[in-house]
Specification:
The longest helix has 26 residues. The protein is of the alpha+beta class. It is 23% helix and 46% strand. Strand 6 and strand 7 form a beta hairpin. About 6% of the residues have low confidence.
Length: 192
Amino acid sequence: MVNIFLKRAIGVAILAGVSVGANATTTALGEVSPGVPTTFTGSVLGNQQSFSDIFTFTLSQPNMSSGYSVVNFPLDIPNVGSLGTILSTMSLVTFGTDGLQGTGDDQVLKSVVLPSAGNTQDHLSLSWDQPITGPAYLSIGGVTSGTLGGIYSGSIETVAAPVPEPETYAMLLAGLGLMGAVVRRRSSRKTS
C-alpha cells in the first residue's frame, strides 16, 4: 500500500513539474473583417518557458483568402531584464464538423514549422488561398528567450470575395438578349 502511494506521489510531482514549464492560453478574437487586420498579442512570464497559445476567430463571409503573421516583440528594460520569444510553429486549424475546438475532428489546413523558407525564429507567416467557413483557430508555439519572459504580436487579414458591379449584370443580360434574338431569327428563317 505504501508502494502504491509512493508511486502516485512521484507521478503527481512529475506532472506538476512538467505543467510548470508549459504555458497555454486561448483567446477569442471574434469576427475578422476584410480590409481591416485583426491584431493579437501573447505574453509568457519566465525564462525558457515553452508556450502553445490558441487564438480563435471566424472570417466574415464571403471570403476568398487569408493571411497570418506573428512576430517576436523583443523588449529590454534597463536594470530589470528582457522580454523575447523564439517562435517555432504556427498552424491554421478549423474546428471541424462538431463546431468545437480541440476535439478529434479539427482539421489542420496549413502549418509553418521552423526551419522553413521565408520564416525565422522572430517572424512566422502563412497564407491560405481558399475560403474558410465556420470557426477556426491559429495555434502558435515557441519558447521564451528573455530573462523575464516573452511577448509576441500577430495579425490576421482576409480578402472578401468580389461582388459583381451592376454594369456586369447589365452586360450579361444584354448578351443573353442578343443571343436570344439570334436564335429567334435563325428559327424564323428555318420555318419560312
